[in-house]
């Protein structure tokens, strides 16, 4: 990544946006997954249901049915069971902030203020396959909202990563918030300009390779060390695979042309 840092330095520290996947990157699941993805209702039912609550209702009903819990499906019982499960998935009983995520976000904000010029600012967002409630409730619950400038979700974009639609939505939102925070003369945040965006996520296909395909810098978050070999087979440099989000700040500094 040193050549990228040199290019960024020549461009006046032109890294303008840091994005994260949420699930298993900024936020860790502390309970076993309740169900598998439903091919009939992809992307949390964004295209076919009124809201993501209805997707939850369908998923919980399907899971109980598959488990043979027929007593929980009657008209009087199911609303009670649904509410208990639905509420618990917006609680710290299920989710926990991944270590060092908040610190990485804070570092990005602080460095962005230090290097901010007429044509350079740095904003922080999420670019994630999630539904709106995840951003509206779960991130504040875990204290991950304080340094978050924007959220681009698959639900709102109408497509799941690795589709570039989610990354393009992130770039549009980052451009707008960058001008709000750092001045109207700020240039667009463009995913096709490699020096402007750094994306961090835990999925080789949906995060790292998808971000690289649209021209972003990317880091593959691999806390368990399970992705190193598959990543190497796909040509991912070892320096782009990180075991801790504590490694993100130094990468930010490199791309800003101010490695410490």
From TrEMBL:
Transmembrane segments: none annotated. It comes from the Eukaryota. Signal peptide: none annotated. This is Haloacid dehalogenase-like hydrolase domain-containing protein 3. The lineage of its organism: Eukaryota, Haptista, Haptophyta, Prymnesiophyceae, Isochrysidales.
